[in-house]
């Protein structure tokens, strides 16, 4: 806590936001005076905080939580402390790790799951490196959920009428907003590499500079909150829904991943001659074999699967290819020391800790199992069959039944995660949509 105390004193912090990411990637926790936070050296929250659904409910499966509704200890990670640049008074935010009273780690914590996967790599003398790319839409404020979303009005006074891929002018429409986003990110040590306009109307993408998976997951987690806060100040919404508008492409969380030797720092995806190594191909094979079973971590919501459609800028299978954006796994053109795989399956709505952990776990299983991938494709993967689950229910069934993934993630985590997502799915099924009323009411 000494590092955190020093930060609070140096920055003259008056309030602290003590936060944890829950299963959905929502920031939960407490806001308290800095003096009280420093005195308590952490805080306590109910264990069930990890089981709250995105709708604010709890699963009915009592087996996934202690029936006494116990508290857990939250310990601040000093590497995560950052300013809250939009706060009206000097405020810090600290991401916490979670423990039971006897010192055991809480296995349901998404942040711990990523640490757990990274420890598997470390035991082999490997260190994974990731670079997330996050897509999101800017939309007009929407206070009535029955109405579809619309692109916002930019400085020209007009909303985008069509798609503006890579348009500089379309980004310039929202310059005041992006100036705030850049300033907020700089204040929080969120290292944005590039900002582009994506294919959809009002759709943007930011690339984060590659680095340590936990640090990059923290940055992606904080960026979502940052974009929403900045957009609200400009009378817009920033949404990371996977498919927010029916006639627009979906939003992805692309994960570039590679592995280096922990001692030498050399990229082990390339051999001494600079050619792709056996471990590189095994990593791809692991992604191909296990990603369908891990799909609920890449596509965690019912809306996620609306994005997984043919010819719509999103993968439908686990084919791989060199510089092939139609495939679920793309190998970008790069020098040997930067050889990597881009996992294009995850949606922007995924919890970044869980998506990165799952992607690395699949690759790890391929490497330790010495698996062999299919041949790379040089045509459109959209012309090939679906090989990814198409519903949340199917995805959860595959996760529960995959022993290797359950062993890596832990039975307690898988049971808790599945219980949360099944509860959300059941809630969704109770909603009768306008499509059903329009087409079925008088016709069936």
Describe this structure in words.
- It is a single chain.
- This protein has 444 residues and is an alpha+beta fold.
- The chain folds into two domains: 105 residues, Glutamine synthetase, N-terminal domain (Ubiquitin-like (UB roll), Roll); 293 residues, Creatine Kinase, Chain A, domain 2 (2-Layer Sandwich).
- The protein is built from 13 helices and 14 strands.
- The strands form two sheets. Strands 7, 8, 9, 10, 11, 12, 13 and 14 form an eight-stranded mixed sheet that branches.
- Strand 1 and strand 2 form a beta hairpin.
- Helix 3 packs parallel to helix 9, helix 5 packs across helix 6 and helix 10 runs antiparallel to helix 12.
- The longest helix has 20 residues.
- The N and C termini lie far apart (65 Å).
- The mean pLDDT is 95.
In brief:
Helix content is 33%, strand content 18%.
Helix content: 25-40%
The level 1 CATH classification of the largest domain is: Alpha Beta
Order of helices and strands: HEEHEEEEHEHHEEHEEHHEEEHHHHH
Shape: globular
Q: Determine the mean pLDDT.
A: 95
Return the domain count.
Answer: 2
Number of distinct helices: 13
Query: What's the CATH topology name of the largest domain?
Result: Creatine Kinase, Chain A, domain 2
